[in-house]
Specification:
This protein is of the alpha/beta class and 343 residues long. It has helices at 13-16, 20-26, 51-68, 72-87, 97-112, 137-140, 167-179, 198-205, 238-241, 257-267, 325-340; strands at 5-6, 118-121, 145-151, 155-160, 185-189, 214-219, 225-230, 246-250, 272-275, 284-289, 294-304, 321-322. Strands 1, 2, 6, 7, 10 and 11 form a 6-stranded mixed beta sheet that branches. It has a 6-stranded mixed beta sheet with strand order 3-4-5-8-9-12, with helices on both faces. Helix 3 (51-68) runs antiparallel to helix 4 (72-87), helix 4 crosses helix 5 (97-112) and helix 8 (198-205) runs parallel beside helix 10 (257-267). The radius of gyration is 21 Å and the shape is elongated.
Length: 343
């Protein structure tokens, strides 16, 4: 299959609808399922689930995973283990839909090692979605952008905690990077970044790449390339795209789309990462209907970097310069100052 090469700047959900077949799966690399609240509010009395429905729902989960998971052989192994646990009665004590979503999601992640896997409650009258509603202020407010500053020595500092799929989030990013555009070095703090929209990842990455640079490819469960992300033309100062001192702070909480951002920059030799190893969550996710009660949040695609032809799934990114999280900013400031010839 000939990969689709797309260079058009995103213009919101209406633009993304034309890529529904691919981006429904890759629409959000999002936060880790283990840290998320299952979608839907349980209604007292209606949240009760009996053993026959638990058993039927586990079987339906295994079937849905088998039909959609990015690695078919792995899906088969996961399903076999889940059915073995079902037959051993491990799920017979589940009594509510919320408990089912939490327990089965946790077991899927434990068996697979894939932190994206999860189960969500189906909301009546709403289309299934893998998008997580954030409740924590640092993720929810100001589209996840938390701190921007020009430090001593004209070193820019930007901290944000999520890549949102939203026009306003892109505008916020443009304002932040515009403010930092005359800095002599830049530190981007992703130590608490849970991931998010690959479209915003691409948008911000485009500040640091020449136009039409290949950033990543999306590969389906059959090994076919279905989408190729290219840098967006016309973004950022030219000085950002050359040998610009750029540092990304990472931690064990840096996940998914944040890892995509750092991995892409590092594969091209454009950044030094400082801090701790990242979470190792690389796959793209989609909302997969299970039955009338539950929706699976399953990894449906994988991405491949054009330089390494690989990704960071299960291994994460080890930092170029190791540092304790609390010391990583000071370390990056020192590195930037030394490169700029300061004290």
């Amino acid at each position: 299959m000939t990969p689709r090469r797309d260079t058009r700047p995103p213009t919101g959900l209406s633009w993304l609808s034309s890529f529904a077949a691919v981006l429904t799966g890759f629409g959000m690399l999002l936060s880790v399922a283990a840290n998320a609240e299952p979608t839907g509010n349980a209604t007292p009395g209606l949240d009760v689930i009996d053993t026959p429905l638990v058993r039927a729902s586990v079987i339906s989960t295994v079937t849905a995973l088998s039909d959609s998971y990015v690695y078919p052989e792995a899906a088969s192994k996961i399903g076999t283990e889940m059915l073995k646990r079902l037959e051993n009665g491990l799920y017979d004590q589940i009594s509510t839909k919320r408990e089912f979503a939490d327990r089965i999601g946790e077991e899927l992640r434990e068996i697979s090692g894939d932190g994206h896997l999860g189960i969500m409650l189906k909301v009546a009258g709403e289309e299934p979605t893998h998008v997580i509603t954030e409740t924590v202020d640092r993720l929810r407010l100001n589209y996840g952008f938390q701190h921007i500053e020009i430090l001593e020595g004209n070193i820019g500092y930007l901290k944000f905690n999520k890549f949102y799929l939203d026009d306003e989030a892109r505008i916020t990013a443009d304002h932040a990077l515009g403010f930092l555009g005359t800095s002599d070095a830049l530190i981007i703090d992703l130590t608490e970044c849970v991931g998010g929209s690959p479209e915003l990842v691409r948008h911000i990455l485009s500040y640091f790449f020449a136009e039409q640079t290949p950033l990543w490819r999306i590969i389906d469960r059959h090994g076919e390339t279905t989408y190729e992300a290219l840098s967006t033309p016309g973004l950022g100062a030219e000085r950002f795209k050359r040998d610009f001192p750029l540092y990304v702070l990472t931690s064990a909480n840096t996940a998914s789309g944040a890892e995509l951002f750092a991995y892409t920059l590092r594969s091209y030799g454009k950044v030094q990462t400082v801090g701790q190893g990242t979470m190792g969550i690389a796959h793209a996710v989609g909302a997969i209907p299970i039955n009338e009660h539950f929706v699976g949040r399953f990894s449906t695609y994988r991405n491949a970097n054009p330089v390494t032809n690989s990704n960071w799934e299960g291994v994460g990114l080890e930092p170029d310069v190791p540092a304790k999280v609390e010391d990583s900013l000071d370390t990056a400031i020192r590195l930037a100052s030394e490169r700029l010839g300061g004290d």
